[in-house]
Specification:
The complex is a heterodimer of chains A (521) and B (363).
Chain A: H1 2-26, H2 41-47, E1 52-56, H3 60-68, E2 73-77, H4 80-89, E3 94-98, H5 99-106, E4 112-128, H6 132-150, H7 153-162, E5 181-187, E6 190-191, E7 195-198, E8 201-203, H8 205-217, E9 219-225, H9 228-236, E10 242-248, H10 251-254, E11 258-259, E12 264-273, H11 282-295, H12 300-332, H13 337-355, H14 359-370, H15 378-404, H16 407-416, H17 420-450, H18 462-473, H19 477-505, H20 512-515
Parallel strand pairs in A: 1-2, 1-3, 5-9, 5-10
Antiparallel strand pairs in A: 3-12, 4-10, 4-11, 4-12, 6-7, 7-8
Chain B: E1 2-11, E2 14-24, E3 29-33, H1 40-47, E4 55-60, E5 63-64, H2 72-77, E6 79-82, H3 94-105, H4 110-123, H5 139-152, E7 157-161, H6 169-184, E8 188-192, H7 196-202, E9 205-210, E10 213-218, H8 220-225, H9 230-240, E11 241-246, H10 253-266, H11 271-292, E12 299-306, E13 311-318, H12 331-340, E14 343-351, E15 354-362
Parallel strand pairs in B: 3-8, 3-9, 6-7, 7-8
Antiparallel strand pairs in B: 1-2, 1-4, 4-5, 9-10, 11-12, 12-13, 13-15, 14-15
Helix pairs in contact in B: 3-4, 3-5, 4-5, 5-6, 10-11, 11-12
Classes of the chains: A alpha/beta (521), B alpha/beta (363).
């Protein structure tokens, strides 16, 4: 059976890899290489009249695309790396983007091309909280950016990170820990070229400027990595002072966020894709993709970190949830009727609420509302959230399996003179566990997979690390597959361990000589 | 040893025990009999407090166990109970089932518990099953282990709650034999049972329960052979005499056979004799008489067990024209019936609508 699944799994991978590679070669090579350089706006507009365009969900490009190409089919995606992947595979014919983002992607794939769209641009800046502290920081940042612009430093830094050449040197990060004033920064490291990971260190235009800012104004930066949506939501609660993610300044966002004056107004362009005539062989391209995803800049370390975070969250959630659920269950068995009845009632209401709410929503409520003002980090919040849901499961499952143990077992124990507690631990629980463990194993497996949502509350787990690598390499295949394989291995391992444990605790698998250890027969 | 006064047990929709007053002496072996739903099990479950009485007092060895301050666990250690459904601990093997309570509660050493446990297993004849698990045993074996488990706590009183009701007929004997051995050893016992012969043989005192209490309390001879009160007499007659009337050829044959078998077991008739009764009825009534009957008919069957000569007398009366089954053409059925019965006699009679009478004696 195991062998069969392994085989199935490898077949699946092979199939996926073939698809991802052949996807690119399907679209034919244009005979007229100049087509993409046509700058006549009217003409290019027509060529996209009935095309499929990609946009980011809820971004300004959604509106612009509909405005410019009313007849085009618009597909919504989650992130820029997704869009680059789709255009490569021909799923979309083009998409609107700002020039710095385009430049960063173009460095790794020379087949990308663009058509300029005059008159459309975006403003990019830092986001601060809509409060007194945020306003002060904004004025400081405006003053600072003004000075940098005046002496030409800003442009130099811009060219360094957002030009056509891939930067290879990291920023020298100054030691600012002696500074008294703390600046809570949320970096979204999936936002190349503004914020990203270079040699497993923060790099990018915004990172460099922000460190200079801290140095100049005497701040001690306290950094957390958060998906930009999580970061912006954290601004409101005062969890962060500044969010750095190359955010576009829009009127709507201004209502809830304090933006600095834009450090850059970038042109909007239409990104297109042309397959070059020479195509690397299948194995060569797989090899290159693998090298990019894992070897280059030691990116495997990011994945390892992600695995560790996923394991930590899973482990403590299972541990905490089990203790929590068990303690609650013991309370519900209290011999004092008042306690047991109240506990049962609470448990009933609680389980209805928890099982009726998506875990992601529970986590977000905890992160942004319950612990919004406190300094608790995302991992702790994630563990608390999963402890709450897992505890609910443990309680319910214990209640059910104990209920399923024949009442006669309890009566027989009482009749022999066993106390309530001894009866439960010696007679009932061991029999309930036999039914409990398979469901428990399944729930743990489910929990490990469910932890993949913690990216939403500023935790860099395995899934999120895969996204960060993807945003850096603009490759979808290896980051996604490796993340899938690792999850599979983790859950498979856990299921295996519990399978063995279940056999071990089955009383029938004991050896007679162990049962009667120390007894002369 | 046990004194019960004004014991009352009320459930939301029934009151099995209204007012029970009784004294039980050391060494008493008491059979509790009576129709179902008269609180036989409730009474002994109240005595070891698996059920909490609604009111009244129960004194065991001078201790009031209905008192809230009473340490029930200590009382129960001295008072064993054997259940209808055995209730062996499924996650322990046989010897562990027996060793558990002495080790956990009496703080016996493992070695001591094992030695004592094996001794008990030998007395119930199951020493070779020490390492089997409950689900590998037959019902009779399970119940014998359950008795050994109870004995391991060295109780002064043992309560049996229908110990053979869940057993195959073939296994009733082995369990009854073990219980009889215990009675001989002078333990105080209370046994709820539907096996009347067993109830009579083992007890020195019988409680007939009805009307929410102990309706009649007497020696086995008094209760079974010379009941003093009306309901007891009716109950004893009913369990001694089987009666059923058939009015259609499409009657419930299997149901009939089952109730005949139940009667046999209640009266302590051997399995062989039960089978013979069944085949006499089947061959004579179903195979020979019924095909001869036309239109509406009535066929009445009674069976009565006589302990003196250990035989059953089956009488079959039917309506319609006179017909002697001994002259039937169905030689095969007749032969089978004659083989099953000791003697078969036919006579014409004039008993209301019945005009024919067959009497069969079965040993």
């Amino acid at each position: 059976m195991k062998r069969f699944f392994a085989l199935l799994f490898s077949a699946l991978i092979l199939l996926l890899s073939l698809c991802s590679c052949s996807g690119g070669s399907e679209s034919s090579v244009s005979e007229n290489g100049e087509k993409n350089l046509v700058s006549d706006f009217e003409e290019s507009l027509e060529s996209f009249d009935n095309a499929t365009l990609g946009v980011i969900v809820g971004s300004i490009y959604d509106g612009y695309s509909r405005e410019l190409f009313p007849n085009a089919k618009i597909d919504a995606y989650q992130s820029f790396p997704d869009l680059f992947q789709c255009i490569k595979q021909g799923k979309v014919d083009g998409f609107l983007l700002d020039t710095p983002n385009y430049n960063a992607a173009r460095r790794t794939d020379k087949n990308l091309s663009y058509i300029s769209i005059p008159g459309y641009s975006v403003e990019i800046g830092y986001a601060f909280g809509k409060n007194e502290n945020g306003s002060n920081l904004k004025s400081q940042m405006d003053e600072f950016l003004g000075a940098l612009r005046a002496d030409g430093t800003l442009d130099a830094i811009w060219d360094e990170w957002c030009g056509e050449v891939e930067p290879t040197e990291n920023i020298e990060i100054p030691d600012l820990s002696a500074n008294e004033k703390e600046l809570k920064i949320a970096f979204d490291s999936s936002r190349k070229p503004f914020v990203y990971m270079l040699n497993n260190q923060y790099a990018g235009f915004e990172v460099e400027v922000l460190y200079m800012f801290c140095e100049k104004y005497g701040y001690n930066p306290k950094i957390e990595d958060a998906q930009w949506t999580a970061g912006v939501a954290g601004l409101k609660e005062g969890k962060y002072d500044v969010v750095s993610c190359g955010i576009y300044i829009t009127e709507e966002r201004k209502e809830s966020v304090n933006f600095c004056e834009p450090y850059m107004i970038a042109d909007i362009i239409m990104v297109t894709y042309e397959n070059s005539a020479e195509k690397a062989g299948f194995f060569a391209s797989v090899k290159e993709s693998f090298e990019k995803t894992f070897i280059r800049e030691d990116r495997w370390k990011l994945i390892a970190e992600g695995v560790l975070v996923t394991l930590i969250i899973s482990f403590f959630s299972v541990l905490g949830g089990t203790v929590f659920g068990f303690a609650f269950y013991m309370l519900s068995r209290s011999k004092y009727k008042a306690i047991s009845q109240i506990t049962k009632k609470i448990a009933k209401i609680y389980s209805v609420i928890i099982s009726g709410t998506p875990t992601l929503v529970v986590l977000m409520i905890l992160f942004y509302i319950v612990f919004g003002k406190s300094d608790i980090n995302g991992i702790t919040v994630a563990v608390i959230g999963f402890v709450l849901t897992f505890g609910s499961f443990v309680y319910g499952q214990l209640d059910m399996t104990v209920e399923n143990v024949d009442k006669g077992q309890t009566e027989a124990a009482y009749a022999l003179g066993y106390s309530r507690n001894k009866t439960f631990f010696r007679i009932v629980l061991p029999q309930a566990l036999k039914m409990f463990i398979p469901a428990y194993t399944g729930e743990i497996v489910g929990l490990i997979k469910a932890t993949s949502i913690v990216g939403y509350i500023a935790v860099n787990d395995l899934t999120r690390m895969g996204d960060i690598i993807r945003s850096n390499t603009y490759e979808a295949f290896f980051p996604l597959i490796s993340v899938a394989v690792i999850y599979f291995a983790l859950t498979w391992g856990v299921a295996g361990i519990f399978g063995i444990a279940r056999k071990k605790i089955d009383p029938k698998n004991r050896k007679n000589k162990n049962i009667l250890k120390g007894v002369a027969r | 040893m046990i004194r019960i006064s004004h014991l009352k047990k009320e459930y939301p929709n029934a009151t099995p025990l209204k007012d029970v007053n009784v004294e039980i002496n050391k060494g008493d072996v008491i059979s509790i009999i009576g129709p179902s739903g008269t609180g036989k099990s409730t009474l002994i479950r109240c005595i070891n407090r698996l059920e909490t009485p609604t009111s009244g007092e129960i004194w065991v060895d001078g201790k009031c166990i209905t008192d809230k301050k009473c340490d029930l666990n200590k009382v129960r250690q001295k008072m064993g109970m054997v259940f209808q459904s055995f209730n062996l601990f499924n996650h322990m093997n046989v010897i562990e089932n027996i060793m558990a309570a002495p080790m956990d509660l009496l703080k016996k050493s493992k070695q001591q518990a094992y030695d004592d446990g094996m001794k008990l297993l030998r007395t119930v004849g199951l020493a070779d099953k020490a390492f089997n698990y409950p689900d590998e045993l037959s019902g009779g074996q399970k119940q014998r282990v359950a008795i050994a488990r109870t004995l391991a706590m060295e109780p002064e009183i043992i309560l049996f709650d229908e110990p053979t009701s869940a057993l195959d007929p073939t296994m009733v004997g082995e369990v009854q034999a073990v219980i009889k051995d215990l009675a001989a050893k002078g333990l105080t016992m209370m046994i709820v049972t539907h096996e009347m012969r067993f109830a009579k043989e083992i007890a020195n005192r019988v409680f007939y329960m009805d009307e929410g209490g102990i309706y009649e309390d007497g020696t086995p001879e008094q209760i079974f052979d010379n009941p003093q009160k009306e309901k007891t007499a009716r109950f004893i007659k009913r369990i001694k005499v089987f009666e059923s009337t058939v009015m259609s050829k499409d009657f419930d044959f299997i149901g009939f056979n089952t109730s005949l078998e139940e009667f046999g077991r209640r009266s302590g008739i051997s399995q062989k004799a039960i089978y013979r009764m069944q085949s006499v009825f089947e061959e004579l009534c179903v195979q020979i008489v019924m095909p001869e009957l036309t239109g509406d008919f009535v066929l009445n069957v009674t069976a009565e067990y006589s302990q003196e000569n250990d035989s059953v007398c089956v009488q079959m009366k039917f309506s319609g024209k006179h017909f002697n089954p001994m002259e039937s053409d169905n030689i095969l059925s007749l032969r089978l019936a004659q083989n099953a019965a000791d003697s078969i006699e036919y006579s014409q009679c004039d008993d209301g609508e019945y005009t024919n009478l067959i009497t069969a004696k079965i040993k």
